[in-house]
Amino acid sequence: MATRKTTTSRVTRKKPRTMPRTAKARTGKLRVWGGIDLGGTKIEAVVVDARGEVLGQARHPTPGKGGPGEVVREMYGTLEEAAISAGLATPRLSGIGVGAPGSVDANHGTLAHATNVVADWEKPYPLAADLGDLVKGRVVLGNDVQVAVAAEYRLGAGRPYRSVLGVWWGTGVGGGLVLDGTPWRGRGGAGEIGHMVVKPDGALCGCGRRGCLEAYAGRASMERKARKEVHRGRRTQLFDIMRDKGRPRLSSGVWMTALQKKDGLAIALIDRAIEMLGAAIASAINLLDVEAVILGGGLGTRLGPEYAGRIAESMYPHLFIPERAPLIHVAELGDLSGAIGAALLAEPRM
Description:
alpha/beta; Nucleotidyltransferase, domain 5; 2 domains
């Protein structure tokens, strides 16, 4: 089959609009919500108004040590900083939403199987109640990628479409769906594209199964593979760059710098990730026939349109109807899509 060149859509990266100091002083008359995006390497918090406009934001590293309780305390500190930057205090927020990876039980406010955040976070933890005690307010939980995709659908790259698939490429690989204008969550586990099997009996995934997409494309899995290769004697600049940047893990910025330096191991592992992403996304397209794919997450947004184009090219041989391949857009809200989506979750009528 002849190779078809795929062009991704142009994406204008919008910086969140923060209110001037004089306007911030008046926010007490407005209803405002807090949103927290909990990730494997960072905690992002925003304060937004009824239009989804960002009034304040803050980012802290996810604690590398300690259990879920330490993570919750850091989440509170990040949200408090975002509220201060908006000229507010956390008790004045109308509600707080949290987008988190793992198994979210929104009814009970618990988070389980969040091993991309804390290695032994397996059992359900009452995250909403603990955070609610600190903020003295209502906390709502949602899946991190599902809320990010909802934000992109409403305010970002998904606005022109009725049906989209979101693929969040970062510490893990998550997914979210909007079908005919409705977020699709199934029985709570829909969109988990990272755990689609791309190679039967393949590489071991962090979930304990083998051959998942995340085992090849998740940043945590790629780091484990890189460490194994170094142990076998392969040379790479990845860990030197990590130390130079003062990072405890191979963050998206570390991978980007290594690619810019043409590090052989970084290139090989990213190439393998792109190949597997293409196969998995194409399979999802063959099943759902959505109009567009939105690529987000730490690696997705950092690597940007060039790598979105490469993923589109790797999809093409696996598409049942290749002449109707969906466009791949990079998330327009960038790193803030998860936090903004979490805030929208706290007040769905926004």
